[in-house]
């Protein structure tokens, strides 16, 4: 199983996914993120899903580019938010020194662990010097398939090891949370903030 199999799941279950996630309250996460981004900054919503983060960031005065590998979710976000939206896969990320911050909430978890170092390097390249990178993964140690989707799980230690392997990122915070959806409160997530260190 790979990322493309997960994308097919989202294509086949777009309406179901939107219904489950479009209005989940992530305000505390968003505000914690935006505290580190200059007002009006340029944010890449990487794996935008139903567009809830893009909508929040846009309403708070930020420039947002939403990206997703699922065309149907791109179309939904474009109509919902009105911000620029690009249909592309993570491995096609092709920006350099463009964004003040990258928000990758519950999206990179569908990438094979062996492919994540390349994706992290592309994110690093896309960020401006001292740009902020947020990512979250389901808590665990496995690379597994569940209901037609690939999940790459991480602990604090393995996520730190991945980031150290890639280089160029300074981790500023890492913490655990429970799933924001009431029916999934028993699921844990590992969250991470990094700063992209690079020569200006």
Short description:
Helices cover 34% and strands 30% of the residues.
Account of the protein in words:
It comes from Aristaeella hokkaidonensis. Keywords: Methyltransferase, Transferase. This is Class I SAM-dependent methyltransferase. This protein has helices at residues 3-12, 14-21, 27-34, 52-59, 71-81, 116-126, 156-166, and strands at 42-46, 63-68, 85-87, 99-104, 127-138, 143-146, 149-152, 169-178, 188-196. The chain is of the alpha/beta class. The protein has one domain: Rossmann fold (3-Layer(aba) Sandwich), CATH 3.40.50.150. Strands 3-2-1-4-5-9-8 form a seven-stranded mixed β-sheet, sandwiched between helices. It has a two-stranded antiparallel ribbon with strand order 6-7. The longest helix has 11 residues, at 71-81.
Main traits of this protein?
globular, 7-stranded mixed β-sheet, methyltransferase, 30% strand, transferase, single chain, 9 strands, alpha/beta, 200 residues, Class I SAM-dependent methyltransferase, Rossmann fold, two-stranded antiparallel ribbon
Beta-strand portion reads 25-35%
Indicate the percent of residues in helices. 25-40%
CATH architecture level-2 label: 3-Layer(aba) Sandwich
Major β-sheet profile: 7 strands, mixed
Q: Provide the CATH top-level class.
A: Alpha Beta
Write the SSE topology.
Layout: H1 3-12, H2 14-21, H3 27-34, E1 42-46, H4 52-59, E2 63-68, H5 71-81, E3 85-87, E4 99-104, H6 116-126, E5 127-138, E6 143-146, E7 149-152, H7 156-166, E8 169-178, E9 188-196
Parallel strand pairs: 1-2, 1-4, 2-3, 4-5
Antiparallel strand pairs: 5-9, 6-7, 8-9
């Amino acid at each position: 199983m790979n990322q493309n199999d997960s994308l097919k799941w989202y294509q086949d279950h777009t309406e179901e996914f939107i219904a489950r996630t479009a209005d989940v309250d992530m305000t505390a996460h968003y505000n914690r993120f935006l505290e580190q981004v200059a007002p009006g900054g340029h944010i890449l919503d990487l794996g935008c899903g139903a567009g809830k983060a893009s909508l929040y960031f846009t309403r708070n005065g930020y420039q947002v580019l939403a990206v997703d590998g699922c065309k149907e979710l791109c179309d939904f976000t474009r109509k919902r938010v009105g911000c620029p939206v690009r249909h592309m896969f993570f491995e096609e990320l092709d920006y350099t020194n463009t964004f003040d911050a990258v928000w990758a909430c519950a999206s990179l978890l569908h990438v094979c662990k062996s492919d994540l170092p390349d994706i992290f390097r592309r994110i690093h390249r896309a960020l401006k010097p001292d740009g902020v990178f947020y990512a979250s993964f389901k808590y665990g140690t496995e690379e597994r398939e569940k209901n037609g989707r690939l999940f790459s799980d991480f602990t604090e230690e393995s996520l730190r090891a991945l980031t150290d392997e890639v280089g160029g990122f300074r981790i500023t915070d890492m913490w655990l949370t429970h799933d924001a959806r009431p029916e999934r409160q028993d699921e844990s997530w590992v969250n991470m903030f990094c700063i992209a260190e690079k020569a200006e």
